[in-house]
Write a structure and sequence with these properties.
Ubiquitin-like (UB roll), Alpha-Beta Plaits, Rossmann fold, 3 domains, 19 helices, 34% helix, 14% strand
Amino acid sequence: MAELIKLTIDGIEVEVPAGTTVLEAADKANISIPRLCYLKDINEIGACRMCIVDTGARSLQASCVLPATNGMVVKTNTPAIRKARKMNLELILSNHDKKCLSCVRSQNCELQKLCVELGIEDGDRFAGKITQYNVDSVSDSIVRDNNKCILCRRCVAVCAKTQYAGVIGPVNRGFDTIIESAWDMSLANTACVNCGQCIAACPVGALREKDETDKVWEYLSDPTKHVVVQPAPAVRAALGEEFGLPMGTSVTGRLSAALHRLGFDRVFDTNFAADQTIMEESAELVDRITNNGVLPMSTSCCPAWIKFCEQYYPEFLPHVSSCKSPHQMAGATIKTYYAKNAGIDPKDIITVSVMPCTAKKFEKARPEMEVDGLRDVDAVITTRELARMIKEAGIDFVNLPDMPFDKLMGESTGAGVIFGATGGVAEAALRTAYEKVTGKTLESVDFEDVRGVKGLKEAVVEIGDLKLRCAVVHGLNNAAAMLDDIKSGKKQYDFIEVMACPGGCVNGGGQPIIPPQVREKCDPLKIRAKALYNEDAGNPKRKSHENEEIVALYENFLKEPNSHLSHKLLHTHYYERPLYTDEE
């Protein structure tokens, strides 16, 4: 047990384990200390100087890097501290693009919030030279605007420490310091995997998703287009947060209702396509196991993981499933199966995906993601973009009556919805693989060993005479460590699931942004995932092959998983990519 120490903060005695910082001790005592650059366990560098405190030392000190000591007396709210914090904030504002009304982060900006709290009236006290930067908008997924950057380095830390890539960092010194990629390249030309975790980490609007809402509004207003939308599983577990609902509120029915009211001609569900993915992926896994195929087989649902593999571990590509991700499968199925059933020319159909993920924007633009010259998916909007569209349309989301998804591609099982949580894809695949291999009914469908937020989860699942060695990993640093262990022979698996974002899609780069202070008091990964697992538990059908609309799809169109038509529509290939390119 760690040694306990006692200190006094603003007259309140606090007992904490040795090694605790003053900032952490203050949080334990519910004493609020402002911060900007701090991300617990990821970015603890004292750069912004907003968390300064008085300990009786010669100067004020940054509490985020200051170890608490026994008997320490700390003051967090003196005239000198308030004056210094205000000056530090005004210095940050002196080289900041203050066009707040047009900023995507307005009213959800940590800098803006601090300005209100500290009484900053105009931010021009230290007016002078302001550096002007070109906005990097070349990437399909992420826009980087250094005019709004406050040099907190949170994006830098997440990109390197959590997501392995490390494609951005500080260069130059003093007033000339800037966060940029190597050789000042666009993110599109670097080894960026488009995961968007840098956006989630950014306290301001210096990083944002590539907005496609204008494109979607144009599609919806075009009478010659039949516009079909599909929302991903994780969207329903987080969208409500944008409208003031408690974290973890499942809004499935209201989500469908809002999409109908926005004017989409059909509202299908990516959960349907998740069940479809399991039909294809489990069949592929069984085929590889029974016919001495390449093992371990990896899931292919996460486009950030795929690009990471292409760039950093191309030798592992033969292990990756050939299945497209669910929303790409849905797009291809909509423009063939649905088009045929509805009697609509596929060329007149527009498919829109609502995703918790910014990498899906990159994925839908990949050259391979089309069939017979038609793109599988025409537009991808994030959970945040959908929320903005709902607000712009004046829809009272909270009080919407529930609506079901449309028939033909709207039914889903519990297996489909858990795709949004880390371990969900593996669990869904195991449920179907078990029954396909053994011919027996799987009575207990909850594979608890692959659930949870541990970076790497391992399980051995008995499927008849087969003992299937499974691994579930999330966060690309964890993925890299796992792949290194596989390469060295230290670890051996048959089936692995990889999600780039920590926690899986519920914590995707396109989800509602959660301030660090909120993340430190709860675990959004678990809370949002619980919403999906509750939907799974409440669904009378919990195995993908029990989905009646999926059964009809195969009986009437695809014939069987991994059929010739399935491979044409639902499968793809991946290839080695250089880390850096000079392509325009």
